Each structure stands twice: as C-alpha cells, then as structure tokens.
Amino acid sequence: MSRVYNFSAGPAVLPEAVLREAADEMLDYRGHGMSVNEMSHRSQMFQEIIDEAEADLRGLMGIPDTYRVLFLQGGASQQFAAVPLNLCALPGASRRADYIVTGQWAKKAYQEAGRLIDAAAIASSADKTFSYIPDCSDLAVRDDADYVYICENNTIYGTVFHELPDTKGKPLVSDVSSMFLSQPVDVTRYGVIYGGVQKNVGPAGLVISIIREDLIPADDIAGVPTMLQWRTQADNGSMYNTPNCWSIYLCGKVFKWLQGQGGLSGIHERNQAKAAILYDFLDESSLFRGTVRTEDRSLMNVPFVTGDADLDAAFVRESRAAGLENLKGHRSVGGMRASIYNAMPVEGVEALVSFMRDFEARH
C-alpha cells in the first residue's frame, strides 16, 4: 500500500495511527464482536465511547463545567441557523446580531442569519477578495446586539484571526472548523465555539458545539424545529436521536492522538514549524506567491498562485502525478491551496516544497 500526501481542505488527512487502530477494531471493537458502526447508540459500549471522547476534549481544551459539549449532525452549516435561532430566543434578546465577514463561510452564516433576524455586517474584507482580516479593535458593535460572530480561520482564503475581536461585552460566536484543536484556546473568551470536524479533527458528518450553559435557552422555542434547539441535545447527552457514532468514535481516537503529541501546545509548535517551511519558500520564490497579507496568514490553509492560470493547472496536474493530492484551489478563487492540518506530517510539507522548487526551475 502506498499513501499519498493529501492536502485536501476537507474531508482531510487523518493521523495514520488512528486509521490503523480503527481498522484493527473494524470487525471486533474491544472484544464485543461487532464494529462501532453496528452497535446500538443506546448501548453501554457506545455510552463509554462518547463519555470518554467528551472528557478527553474537555481536557485538551480546558473546557469549564459551565460549558456544554454537543456532538451534532448537520455540519457547521446547520449551525448558521441554529446560532441565531437559539441566542436570539434568550430572555431580553433583541433579535439583532453583528457579523464580521472575512470569507465565504462567514458570508454564508451572515446571509442565513439575515433570513431569521436583523443581522449586520460590521466589518468585512470582501474589498480585497478576503485576503486579510479587518481591524477589529474598535468595532461598531450595536448596543443591543445579542452576539458577535466570526469565522476564525478562513479555509478558502487562508486567513486567521490572530487576535480575537473586541465585542464590547457581547458573546463571541466562532466557527473554528478549519483550525479546531490546532492550538491552545481560552474557551472562556467565547460564548459559543463550534466546528465541523472533517477538516482537522475527524471524518465528515459531525459538528462539535461548545456552548456556555447560560446561552442555551431553558424553554422550548416556539416555531423552531426540535432538532435546531440546543436544549434538545443538551438535555439528552447529544443522543436525542441516533448520533454519528462512527465520527464520534474516530474523533475520540484523534483526541487520544493529540494527547500523545503533547496536547494543543505540542501540536501548535509542530503546526508553526510546518507552516514556516512553506511560507519561507513562498516568500523567496520567483514563481509562486502567497495570496494573504503576511500578518493574517493561517497555519492550516495556505493558498498560492503563479499568476498564470495555465501554469497553475500544470502545477496541479504534475503534483498529483508526484503523489501530492488535492492542491487545486477552491473553485471560487482558483490557483492552489495546501491544507496542512494537524495530521499532515512535516515530510509532506517538505515534499511539497521540494516539488515546487523543481517546478519553478523548469518553468
């Protein structure tokens, strides 16, 4: 068997050790004679899996007891509606929220909220194709806003908030899908922090939402579907209905793997080192250039171009033949993009840079 270096933005590379362990348990999970895909979510076996996964996640992130951890379906995109439906149903809510639009997913979240409440874009980087993070040190947050929303790492455009915005005391909601568990985080700075796991944590089909307890409406929300109410899953341990058992199981294994990497501090050091290899090359290259303002660069997603669409296409084609997969940029921006998530080994980044040097020499 030969594995490629997979630079996909999601679903994305997973730790090989995790995949091998899951393969070993596929037919018989720890002597139970069945796989996790076959066992009842109401069984004691699976209850132990989800309880251990939550405990390990709490340990990795330092999640206080005042926050609930929900394992949900519908992906991050479903939370675009769940966030305003829940937060704007709290006592005294104005049904108004402020959004910082720094990419496609923040824009989609803002547009979805606009279908339900009075949503305002109080900052945006659309004027320069989302290639930077706007100044968020003194935002015009509305006095009666129920929350402020960001997409913290922008997968398509390769930008990241290195400093969280000043929300003027309003709860901060952050979609962290493409940087989830890539660095230490102070959960107490957020009201809600959530992410689809398929980019940096596990397989597709699961979103993990970490929500401050007082931001989960206590009562039924009139007119809101049962499955979109956070209270539904909070009161049922994320098992009001059948959860994505397989994804929760694999995420639990990734949490264990991260513990073995030195936790979030250890993996952050490795992520910084990997990104430096690629960015240092881009900064010195005479053919390739990064598309993001230097101070706003992501450690997870690195878009770059040659400036020639035909040459970009040749690069993608030839890189695939060299065992470097999924380097084509998002269809909305073109060029190339290397997603170098937690599970991407440093050898993969080194192989990419080596190929880029060779391609540059030939072109």
Describe the 3D structure.
- By secondary structure, the protein is α/β, with parallel strands linked by helices.
- It has two domains: 16-260, Aspartate Aminotransferase, domain 2, CATH 3.40.640.10; 262-362, Alpha-Beta Complex (Aspartate Aminotransferase, domain 1), CATH 3.90.1150.
- 34% of the residues lie in helices and 16% in strands.
- The protein has nine helices and 14 strands.
- The chain has helices spanning 16-24, 44-61, 75-87, 104-114, 230-234, 245-260, 263-284, 309-321, 346-362, and strands at residues 5-6, 67-72, 96-101, 118-124, 148-151, 153-154, 159-160, 172-175, 192-196, 207-212, 289-290, 301-305, 324-325, 336-339.
- Strands 2-10-9-8-5-3-4 form a seven-stranded mixed sheet. Strands 11-12-14 form a three-stranded antiparallel sheet.
- It is globular and about 65 Å long.
Number of helices: 9
Order of helices and strands: EHHEHEHEEEEEEEHHHEEHEEH
Average pLDDT figure:
97
- Number-wise, the strands total 14
Please estimate the helix content.
25-40%
Task: Please tell me the CATH architecture of the largest domain by its name.
Answer: 3-Layer(aba) Sandwich
Give the end-to-end Cα distance, rounded to a whole number of Å.
33 Å
Indicate the CATH class of the largest domain. Alpha Beta
- Rough outline: globular
Q: How many whole angstroms does the radius of gyration measure? A: 21 Å
Strand content: 15-25%
Q: Kindly report the oligomeric state of this protein.
A: single chain
Q: In the residues, how many domains can be counted? A: 2
* CATH domain fold name of the largest domain: Aspartate Aminotransferase, domain 2
Major sheet size, sense and barrel closure = 7 strands, mixed
